[in-house]
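haha ok so turns out i had the wrong file open the whole time. this is the CORRECT one, sorry everyone. sequence first:
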Amino acid sequence: MPPEAPIEQLLRWRLALAEADAPRPPRAAELLALTRPWWERWPERFRAQAERLRAMPLAYGYAMAGPPSPTGPAGYPVPVLIAQASDAEAYARVLYLVVRDGRLRLRFALHDAPGAPEPVFDAVFVGDVSEQPLCVARAEQAQSGEYRADVELPQDVAERWSRLKVTDRMPFRLILSPVADGA
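then structure:
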C-alpha cells in the first residue's frame, strides 16, 4: 500500500486483510453445542463421576463425632468429588444455607481435600436420590478458606429446598471442577 493512499483506501485494504485471515464463522449447531453444560457434552464422564460420588459413604458418625465447629453448627457432611486429572474424594461441611426468592446462597468448607485448595470451582449439584445434575454454580474461596456460591435454582428444587437448615442432611452431592483461569 503506498504511503500517500487516502485513509479510506487504507481502511478498505486493512479490512480485506482481516477478512482473509479470519477463521470461518461457527455454524449454528457448533454454537448450540458450546452452550450445553459439560455433563450433556460428556455423558459417560458424568455417569462415571456420579457413580463414584454415589459410592462415597455418608459419614453420619463423622458428622456427629466431633465438637461443633467454631464457625457454625455441625451438620451432615456432603460427599464431594473434585474432578481434576485424577479425581479426588472429599467432604464439605455446609456452614450457611438459605434459599430465598429462588436463589441458593451457600457457604461450605472442604475437609480431606488433597493438595492446595483451588480459588474457584464450578460446583455441579447432583441430586442425592435422582443422581441427576440439578444446577451449576461458581464457588469462590474466601480469605477464611470457605467457599461461597450463589445460584438461581429451578423452581421445583427451590420449593423443596426452601425449608432446609444447615443441620439437615443435604439432598445433594457436589462435583467440583477447578476453573482453569481462576476467574
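The chain is about 30% helix and 30% strand.
again sry for the mixup
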